[in-house]
Amino acid sequence: MATDYDAPRTTDILGGGGTALDELDIKPTAAADTDEGEILETLDLPGADLSALSAEELSVQVLPKQSDEFTCMGCFLVQHHSRRATGDGEQAFCRDCV
Questions:
Q1: Gap between the Cα atoms of 75 and 59, Å rounded
Q2: Longest dimension (CA), the chain
Q3: Is the dihedral of CA 75, 76, 79, 85 positive or negative?
């Protein structure tokens, strides 16, 4: 049997004579009225005490750019030469930025 999908619907899909959204009485809730900052201040995560880390000193070894690396002009990250998509010399772009 062929079905005409452009014909107007004759059956009630909602099954109870559903109402339009404009007819619903929508009231704001207290949760929607609170500030996001207030919610985050009351959230305590286990092990999130960072006061012990304030006296920590981090040490990172920084290596200069190697001969087989280039700096992408789109994201400014140092990439391996196999990630080069276009450009030569100073105007090189990586595959992610093309």
A1: 25
A2: 77
A3: positive
Strands (E) located in 1-98? 69-71, 78-80, 84-86, 93-94
Q: ∠ CA 9-15-21 to the nearest 5 degrees?
A: 80
Is pTM beyond 0.90 here? no
Q: Are 83 and 95 in contact (CB under 8 A)?
A: yes
Confidence band of 93 (pLDDT split at 50, 70, 90): very high
The residues, any chain, with a CB within 8 Å of residue 17's CB and separated by 6 or more, are none
71 in Cβ contact with 77 (< 8 Å): yes
- Give the model's pLDDT for residue 74: 94
Residue 89 dihedral angles phi and psi, to the nearest 5°: 70, -120
Neighbours of 74 (CB within 10 A): 13
| Residue among 59, 61, 91 nearest 76 (CA) | 91
Give per-residue pLDDT as tens, 67-83.
Answer: 999 999 999 999 999 99
